[in-house]
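JOB MANIFEST
job_type = single_chain_structure
chain_count = 1
residues = 258
[input]
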Amino acid sequence: MTLRLGLIGYGAIGRHIEVARIDDVELVAVLVKRARRDQRITHEPDRFFAAPMDVVVECAGHDAVRFYGERVLEHGADLLVTSVGAFADDALFDRLLATARANGRRLFLPSAGIGALDILSAAAVGGLDSVTVTVRKDPSAWKGTAAEELVDLASLSAPRIVFDGPVREGARLYPQNVNISAAAAIAGIGLDRTRLVIVADPTIATHIVELEATGAFGRFSFREDVAVSEENRKTGKLVAMALVKSVRQLASTLVLAA
């Protein structure tokens, strides 16, 4: 059976999902901000939601989750959210969970740009004591963010911590950069107990994410060093690849790392 897919957003992630041409997945509708010539792509929400869809992938930012998340689930489609930082708003998260439950649908929070969420969520079953997520990106990735108020990014010559605190606050301040930390927090000990360290680092040309956790299971650490997306320097190439994997698994007979 073919999975009917909708996309909210058609940037670096959305285009990669389309180009991947995943077996047993048909892209039926895309919602964007401005009109396009492609018949499947529309800037009109009513036209988008008129299409029959089994799952919708949000890849357009926190506002897209707020504006359209409940409507997707009420429409009868599952919702896969990439902008997980939007759920720093507990009320929004609770509403979407309640709407999904009421309509017999599912809310997916993919691993996207961060690995080891399977280990972290498994460790949470036995109890976690601490979780820290450290995100390092070059100064250009932090342009247009709260970091510009703290440091002159253009003249930065050494690594600089621009945030050290709970994920809930960091996700609010850096909505385009640290959605991965919100995913880790929800998988582990929550948005208020998970520590987030954000570093503007002029010595690197990649995105480095480190995750450390301790608990009843013991201790583990995870580190990834990923290439930067050409389309958007705030995100890594791995994010689009991971979303292709997530959509593929939704339509696949074989599901890995469930």
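[summary]
The longest helix spans residues 237-251.
The mean pLDDT is 92.
exit_status = 0
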